[in-house]
Amino acid sequence: MELTHINEQGRARMVDVGNKPESARRAIASALVRMRPETLQRIRSGGIAKGDVLAVAQVAGVMAAKRTPELIPMCHPLPLDAVDISFSFQEPSGLVVTAEVSCTGRTGVEMEAMTAAAVAALTVYDMCKAVDRWMQVEEIRLLAKSGGKSGSLVRPGEGDVVGTRGTVVSVCVSPERGQLKRPVEEAELVAGFGLAGDGHGGDWERQVSLLALESIERAARERGVQVGPGDFAENLTTRGIDIADLPVGTRLKVG
Length: 255
Description:
The protein is of the alpha+beta class. It has helices spanning 37-45, 53-66, 68-71, 110-128, 213-223, and strands spanning 23-34, 80-90, 94-105, 136-146, 153-154, 167-173, 182-183, 189-190, 194-195, 210-212, 236-239. The strands form three sheets. The chain has a five-stranded antiparallel β-sheet. A four-stranded mixed β-sheet has the order 7-6-11-10. It has a two-stranded antiparallel ribbon with strand order 8-9. A hairpin with a 6-residue loop joins strand 4 (136-146) and strand 5. Helix 2 packs antiparallel against helix 4. It is globular, with a radius of gyration of 22 Å.
């Protein structure tokens, strides 16, 4: 396997991604902060003098994702669509930081996700070092990624944590087939039928259709036309789900 960041002379380079197509990209990374059990309880109860540890670390993680190209020399500046930092307590003495980053671009956001997780974890250390100087930041790692030539990849043992997680941004229906669908405030999903009142519902193979908002936005940019949810006769418009990479038979849970 060749190292793409090395040129013919053996020198570092920034990879040319100009000819690669844009696609929905997503990456999830995590870091583990180990500490004394009493420190973890202080974080839980808001007993750290500097303030709300998790709130500050969350903001730090978002800022770090946006500034990754300034920290990692060969990273491309990317227009990020979303950054989400979450925390889970690993009793009795661990705090897991999870960073999820997405964009629509020509290269992935794995480094942005790992940088966000690492900086959020370091911020936890900074907020708590007065009471626990020997905390450790461990296991900064990529959990999963989707999009691009390599498609969806998940770290062994982590389960299906990426590729089927996203947001439903619009629900659309039309009384008859062949008509443009229009967004509605709410709709009833009927088992074995589809959306109540929708022309595509019934006993056949395509009861509910999905389309990624990223695809609609890309069509609008490339063709210079004004299109929106429902204009392609889809029922559910989603964001953050790499639909093209989902294998046949994939089950999606809505709600």
